[in-house]
Amino acid sequence: xxxxxxxxxxxxxxxxxxxxxxxxxxxxxxxxxxxxxxxxxxxxxxxxxxxxxxxxxxxxxxxxxxxxxxxxxxxxxxxxxxxxxxxxxxxxxxxxxxxxxxxxxxxxxxxxxxxxxxxxxxxxxxxxxxxxxxxxxxxxxxxxxxxxxxxxxxxxxxxxxxxxxxxxxxxxxxxxxxxxxxxxxxxxxxxxxxxxxxxxxxxxxxxxxxxxxxxxxxxxxxxxxxxxxxxxxxxxxxxxxxxxxxxxxxx
Length: 251
Known about the structure:
Layout: E1 9-19, E2 22-31, E3 38-41, E4 47-51, H1 60-66, H2 68-79, E5 88-91, E6 94-102, E7 109-113, E8 116-121, H3 127-154, E9 160-164, E10 171-173, E11 178-182, H4 190-202, H5 211-220, H6 224-238, E12 249-250
Parallel strand pairs: 2-4, 6-8, 6-12, 9-11
Antiparallel strand pairs: 1-2, 3-4, 5-6, 7-8, 10-11
Helix pairs in contact: 3-4, 4-5
């Protein structure tokens, strides 16, 4: 779910394979924590093959073909999810209705008030990218604020914080103390976002997922297992692309 540090996982290969009528992207990752070769279905539809250290990388295409039915089930599950429809979008777990108004002004504006996200934009401005840019900015503000507050409480110090469009992991912590988060976390409830922040900050003390690591997480986030379960259940929905139907715009 959430990554640890850069040295714990190393991508060694990537490619695509035809499975039935589907072209499936895959990547091979060597992980220090892996005990056996296993497959993971990532939120963007990529299949990840995790290989333990000091184990020769097997013929990847043979493994993928042997697990074709499992892979197809995972892809079907992801494809069955409709895209995020910005007529209604979540912000810190609360549903916000989106109102799009077309204006003759050369520039537009977007703002959030109460439980409404309103866009006043010219005809030539695409709605979905505008909403995504706005949500990224809000996510950057929220994540910087929460990371600073939790780092002070936990008495740890990070070097930098980046917010990206990560769909395969919610957060990561590098060995140099850099934090990375997905902007899509801002659509989750605040306690879930806080859990991911605490998780990554705890890696500044423990660069692993040992019992001591999880005990540390539990100290600051006693309900972390509930929040992990929420991400497992709802994460694929947050990873969907934004989409706006033409009928969503009003004048």
